[in-house]
């Protein structure tokens, strides 16, 4: 597929392209990961789907090229933009990890939206952590089964699952520490870890934390978490940002019981949930088909 094709698809040039096809183009561009792709991704922000735009920001962070910083700054600074999209722009700045982003992140440390404020706090802590010369390099860049750049590094110093559980669920601790426990549990990958992480879906202190738990459960693809994710998707009192992440996690786990739940909410009154179910149903089909790769032949991926 040419860049011209990809641009026409992702920007829905002819107005006829389904969201799930646009998502596949998005992940093809993510895998291409060059400056030309970043330029195309930047153009797609002129859209009215918060789901698509938050994914654009996520992908720009994962590509990890400082070339994308100006566009992410614009998205974060735009108070008319959906908080979920601004959150993802702040997180992407953290993923790119340039100390020069600290200023803008500090500016939104008191944002009116908790999810933006807390993301800026996490991104600032991550950038400072990575640039702290007193911390050994092997504690900063850890490899795991997962290829994502995470908002906090796993904490390899803690081995005990019960200690990780206590940190994860302790609402008095800084989010950065709780996230570190979250990614450590994810990397452990046991059913025990999945059960502990699933408890985090009921954490009443932070919607940001709950949405990240749902994302991590989607990455793990362990069927044990399915009933908990369905409960989150079905909870209409839950924030749409969290329900959206539960829907996409179900699309990625893709066991038979995920299908009726996704179908049930594919016309949800919250646009972001409705669109997530549409994309998740496409992922479900992909997971249950012989297609080798979701992003049109250029690598497997998990959606944010
Ligand atoms: Fe997010
Ligand atoms: Fe998301």
UniProtKB/TrEMBL annotation:
PROSITE patterns: HEAT_REPEAT. GO terms for molecular function: deoxyhypusine monooxygenase activity; metal ion binding. GO terms for cellular component: cytoplasm; nucleus. HEAT repeats lie at residues 68-108. Its main location: cytoplasm. Pathway: Protein modification; eIF5A hypusination. InterPro entries: ARM-like, ARM-type_fold, Deoxyhypusine_hydroxylase, HEAT_type_2, PBS_lyase_HEAT. Binds 2 Fe(2+) ions per subunit. Fe cation 1 binds at residues 54-55, 87-88. Keywords: Cytoplasm, Hypusine biosynthesis, Iron, Metal-binding, Monooxygenase, Nucleus, Oxidoreductase, Repeat. It is found in: Cytoplasm; Nucleus. It is an enzyme of class 1 (oxidoreductase). It catalyses: [eIF5A protein]-deoxyhypusine + AH2 + O2 = [eIF5A protein]-hypusine + A + H2O. It holds the Pfam family HEAT_2. Its cofactor is Fe(2+). Coiled coil: none annotated. Fe cation 2 binds at residues 211-212, 244-245. Catalyzes the hydroxylation of the N(6)-(4-aminobutyl)-L-lysine intermediate to form hypusine, an essential post-translational modification only found in mature eIF-5A factor. This is Deoxyhypusine hydroxylase. It comes from Diversispora epigaea. The gene is LIA1.
């Amino acid at each position: 597929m040419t860049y011209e094709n990809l641009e026409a698809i992702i920007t829905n040039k002819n107005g006829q392209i389904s969201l799930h096809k646009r998502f596949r183009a998005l992940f093809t561009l993510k895998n291409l990961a060059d400056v030309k792709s970043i330029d195309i991704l930047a153009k797609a922000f002129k859209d009215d789907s918060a789901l698509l735009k938050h994914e654009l920001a996520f992908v720009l962070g994962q590509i990890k090229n400082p070339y994308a910083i100006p566009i992410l700054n614009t998205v974060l600074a735009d108070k008319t933009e959906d908080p979920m999209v601004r959150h993802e722009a702040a997180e992407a700045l953290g993923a790119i990890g340039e100390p020069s982003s600290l200023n803008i992140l500090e500016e939104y440390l008191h944002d009116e939206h908790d999810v933006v404020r807390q993301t800026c706090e996490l991104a600032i802590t991550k950038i400072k952590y990575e640039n702290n010369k007193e911390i050994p390099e092997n504690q900063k860049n850890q490899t795991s089964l997962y290829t994502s750049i995470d908002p906090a590094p796993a904490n390899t110093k803690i081995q005990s699952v019960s200690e990780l559980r206590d940190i994860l669920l302790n609402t008095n601790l800084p989010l950065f520490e709780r996230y570190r426990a979250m990614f450590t549990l994810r990397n452990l990958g046991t059913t025990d870890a999945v059960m502990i992480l699933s408890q985090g879906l009921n954490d009443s202190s932070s919607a940001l934390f709950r949405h990240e738990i749902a994302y991590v459960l989607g990455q793990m693809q362990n069927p044990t978490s399915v009933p908990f994710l369905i409960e989150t998707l079905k909870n209409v009192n839950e924030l749409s940002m969290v329900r959206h992440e539960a829907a996409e996690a179900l699309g990625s786990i893709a066991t038979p019981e995920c299908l009726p739940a996704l179908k049930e909410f594919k016309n949800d009154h919250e646009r972001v949930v409705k669109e997530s179910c549409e994309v998740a149903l496409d992922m479900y089909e992909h997971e249950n088909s012989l297609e080798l790769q979701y992003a049109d032949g250029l690598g497997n991926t998990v959606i944010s």
